[in-house]
Amino acid sequence: MSIFGESVEVVHGMGEPWTNEIGASMLAQFDFKQSRTSLIQLLQTSVSLMQAAGEGSASSRGVPASQLLLILSDGVFSEDPLSPALQAAVRLARDHHLFVVCVIIDDSKKKHSIFDLRRYTGQGKLLPYMDVFPLPFYLVLRDVTALPQLLAEALRQWFELASATVGRSGGP
């Protein structure tokens, strides 16, 4: 588990045990007060971390392991969603079999929803932000009580995608 903004900091390693105390301690580190939120940095770091974690889990048939990256965020990233550098980072994750799902926490009681945001493109056009959102898979969470159902749906889709990928690769 990591926190990210301008940089990425691992707060709980994948091989470390999980306890209630560790969970509470980690939650205290999430302050959502970063001045910049670099999706490029997050994706590049995640690919490196997941590669290291997945090295021992690749199947004996040579089929690369498919991995799931859940991003909990307000969905607003610093980079231009259409920038070549950001698109390259998204491709890097996909090419390394990393299924990235962004869970956008969008409080419906706020004055401005993620759906109200507009973003200038490199061509000088003003578009709805969600029309140019950089990640192909995302869920918008407006009610925190719906989080378990949303995560279950994300996992279901990941299992379907992973199964289809293994099937095309000649695996089971």
Automatic annotation (TrEMBL):
UniProt-listed GO biological process terms: ribosomal large subunit assembly; ribosomal large subunit export from nucleus
InterPro entries: vWFA_dom_sf
A GO term from the CC aspect: preribosome, large subunit precursor
Keywords on record: ATP-binding, Nucleotide-binding
GO MF term (any one): ATP binding
UniProt xrefs under PANTHER family: MIDASIN, MIDASIN-RELATED
Protein name: VWFA domain-containing protein
